[in-house]
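Homework help board

Subject: predicted structure for assignment chain

Our instructor gave us this sequence and asked us to write out the predicted structure in token form, then describe one feature. I got the tokens but I'm not sure how to describe them. Can anyone check?
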Amino acid sequence: MAEEANATEKKEEVKLSKSEQAVVDSIEKLTVVEANNVAKYFEEKYGISAAAPVAVAAGAPAGGDGEEEAEEKSSYNVVLKEAGGQKIAVIKVIRELTGLGLGDAKGLADNGGTVKENVKKQEAEEMKKKFEDAGATVELQ
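My token output:
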């Protein structure tokens, strides 16, 4: 209930103009790979990163170290860093895990990026193993 109240408060705080809403609508229609490319562009061009606010909000408790934070984390983002030498096998794994079409899966294999977000630890580790078995480099964030 408290989360719903917070979500409602956040929605009321941000009011978009027509042109801003048009941009948001356009971004929402992008594929995962296209949205990832837009995010990379904004990071390179303007130094804006969507990950920065999340990292601050999920900061370690006072006196905690990185190991404690990793143990307490309940969900992970599975991020493809590099497809490796067996790109076709990696594309098959991407399609299996995400349901993306061939073109989008190939784009993700070529460019890397977030494959899935907010995945439970066990599922994230299973996904990482599948990618590693296919020859890819994957990071859990």
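Reply (TA_rk): Your tokens look well-formed. For the description, you could write something like this. Helices lie at 2-13, 18-28, 32-46, 51-57, 66-72, 87-98, 102-111, 121-133. That's the kind of observation they're looking for.
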